[in-house]
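Table S7 (text form). Paired inputs.
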Amino acid sequence: MTHRHRNSEECPFNVYCDESRHTSDQSDAYMVIGALSCPRDDKLDIVSKIKDLRKAHSTYGEFGWKRLSPNKRDFYWDLLRLFAADERLRFRCVVVNRRSLNHEEYNDGDAELGFYKLYYQMLVHWLQRGCDYHIYLDLQSNREQRRFITLRDILQRKLSGVARIACLEPDSSKQQLLIQLVDLLIGAVGYEWNVRKGSATKEAFCRDLAGAVGLRTLRTSTPLGAEKFNIFHFQGRDGG
């Protein structure tokens, strides 16, 4: 992903993060951690467009992958088209096989630590030189209360002189429509990577989303420079 702009003061970015399948059904091998970015000054306009879609389809309340159903098909396909057409919205996710994670060896048996290492991997190679970032993670019930602060501090140190982390803090998906949009996108990626079947609507959504962002399938890895829809299959030891 390359954010093209003149300097960070003129175009700071918001980044909204969520995760899928990291604690759910253990029969799903792959978990997904994803993020959606947009220019900070455009956030309200983008949210307004999503609210217009909800009003047009009389679809209120929280939306996301689990709520994708045949009777809401038109609303979700309009969301798909909104995301695909709006050049201000860009997505990246990391996909990892949970069964390959060795928390005992690399994280002192701390799976939560390993989880936030994967968040680091997803973000650190995505945030670009000269940018300011305001990062919002879906609120988690962490055993260690300083996880968000630690992730912020490590990113700040690693990116010192490159990019600035203006903030990194939790936000509730119930109030944040762009986190709900992340949930929808990572849900689709996870559905494909775990070779899920059983919902013709979800299978069609995955197929149409892939086509809309120029991919043959969501079950793939993209080059790091893929700007609109970036999928990183993480296989290294640092997150394990």
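Next pair, protein 2 of 2.
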Amino acid sequence: MKRNLVFATLAVAATLLAAAAPVNAQATRTWVSGVGDDANPCSRTAPCKTFAGAISKTATGGEINVLDPGGFGGVTITKAITISSEGFEAGVLVSGTNAIIVNVPNATDVVVLRGLDIEGLGTGLNGITVLTGGTVFVEKCTINRFTNFGINFTPTVTGSKLHVVDTIIRNNGSGVNGGGILVSPSLVAKGSLDNVRLENNVLGIRTQGGTSNTSITNSVATNNAAAGFASATGGTLTVEHSISSHNGTGIGCASGTVRIGNVTLADNGTNLSTGGTCQSFHNNDADTAITVTLIAPTPQ
């Protein structure tokens, strides 16, 4: 009788351990490799093959690291996480679909995308799409050849944020639509760009809708068919220490609010569109005359 009781207890314990295994299997740091396998546990010695394979084995708030060069595929992100490649080619190549979808529920959920080469082959939809909310950091990435936008930031959760640093966004949009970055929240959201190059897109960046406040510093918009930097109804865009050149329109403020300071406008079809609120708070340099409203800088 006692032996049967022991066996029964061990069987129950084994069942409980098996049920808990998937949760315990999630690691705070996982790894992918060009020669990995998604059947692996995504450890450093047994890495996974794709970001999609690794994300289910990575704990919330954890990090996926790239071990060596490879193509790691598109991924949908539903929790706070970091995907990072330092020093290796980390390709995200898609055709006819979105490359990276961020669909986290809260504005406080932090997603970091670092060192990725995101390629749409001329048929991909968006390079990075932010749907529900979150605070999203895009660092040291290249986003190329998507038919809609390189980054499509359209959150529905108030307080969401987009931060883009040290990144190249080029050759995005199709015909007269799409472009480098769209900031178009449903409610209140903020964005910032620092040391970003917006090159050869239909549109460089446009802020619109909800209450979107976006700041751009130390950045370049060049050879964009429509406008380099633009704001539409509901959007407020502040551009400082940046260059807009060789675009259809250098700064577009036909219906939104744009504030500029220490900005160079050169060789655009039109340096500055008018009709919205166009304000200048510091020295600007333009190769043709522009009309702006002078305002005092905001005290710090």
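Helices lie at 2-24, 51-55.
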